[in-house]
From TrEMBL:
Protein's recorded name: AraC family transcriptional regulator
Pfam families: Cupin_2, HTH_18
All residue ranges annotated as the HTH araC/xylS-type domain in the record: 159-257
Organism superkingdom: Bacteria
Classification via PROSITE patterns: HTH_ARAC_FAMILY_1, HTH_ARAC_FAMILY_2
Database matches in SUPFAM superfamilies: Homeodomain-like, Regulatory protein AraC
InterPro entries in alphabetical order: Cupin_2, Homeodomain-like_sf, HTH-like, HTH_AraC, HTH_AraC-typ_CS, RmlC-like_jellyroll
Residues covered by region (Disordered): 246-268
SMART domains cross-referenced by the UniProt entry: HTH_ARAC
Assigned keywords, A-Z: DNA-binding, Transcription, Transcription regulation
Keyword Transcription regulation included in the entry's annotation: yes
């Protein structure tokens, strides 16, 4: 079983530095924006938006910003309790590290946001919920690492669809529209998208919308109804259901999000 030690969100300037030291726990890092470089066992590992880096316990680690822009990253630190974890959690077998570029950027952000909310809120059973989210993130990374050899044509097709959704999510998007975009049938698009990302294009659309809604509700004076309408939900009750399905709580409940980034138990 794993023991979660810390969850954090860092937003730091271009001159950020991490002094060289031995890591005392496994570290899982997800870069939300910007660029930085880690030096692991004397090897430089450049990171940019969408990159995932797993650093095993015992790695000699240092870090530095790119000198021109700030970066933002999520991270969690954890310990594994026994040899059985290396069988059930494939990432633990990766030495000296694992680096990959996630194909599901928005979903990764959403899950990390929920993880941090639960960790900071410390409501009843938060440990169990946090462990579940951590295992999911480790599983997603392991699956994407296994699928790294997927044909480039499939990856390119899914990337095209994802980018179209990111550019157009405020409007009405239909599966037929996405299939015409890549000149394939709707069934083929759904099957390939699920093969690469683990979800359907429509599920991905809802996740992008809900993540955008969360930002608007936290950082603008807009009401829930106004946010729902702006993001293409004509029915606010449907928006409420989708929001709760994806985040685990209704859009009216943002207690705990305001604390994001305020509590740092160990810097990544």
């Amino acid at each position: 079983m794993i023991e979660l030690k810390s969850v954090l969100l860092e937003e730091v300037g271009p001159e950020w530095r991490k002094a060289e030291e031995i890591t005392e726990a496994h570290i899982f890092i997800y870069v939300v924006s910007g660029q930085l470089t880690y030096r692991l066992n004397h090897q430089d590992i450049p990171l940019t938006k969408g990159d995932v880096l797993f650093i095993p316990k015992g790695t000699l680690r240092a870090g530095i910003g790119d000198g021109t822009q700030m970066h933002q990253k999520f991270a969690f630190l954890f310990q594994s309790s026994g040899a059985a974890d290396h069988t059930s959690i494939p990432l633990l077998a990766h030495k000296p590290y694992l680096l990959l570029h996630t194909r599901n950027h928005e979903y990764m952000k959403q899950r990390f946001s929920l993880l941090l909310q639960q960790w900071l809120g410390k409501l009843p059973h938060y440990e169990l919920i946090c462990t579940g989210i951590v295992l999911e993130l480790l599983g997603i990374a392991a699956r994407e690492a296994d699928h790294a050899d997927l044909p480039l044509k499939k990856l390119s097709m899914v990337a095209t669809i994802q980018q179209y959704i990111l550019d157009s999510y405020r409007g009405q998007i239909r599966l037929e529209e996405l299939s015409q975009l890549v000149d394939r049938t709707p069934n083929y698009v759904t099957r390939i998208f699920r093969e690469v990302t683990g979800q359907t294009p429509i599920d991905y659309l809802h996740q992008v919308r809900v993540y955008a809604a969360r930002d608007l509700l936290l950082n603008s004076p807009m009401t829930i109804g106004q946010v729902a309408d702006q993001l293409g939900y004509c029915d606010q009750s449907y928006f409420n259901r989708m929001y709760k399905k994806i985040t685990g709580h209704p859009p009216s409940n943002h207690t705990g999000h305001q604390a994001i980034g305020q509590r740092r138990e160990e810097r990544a």
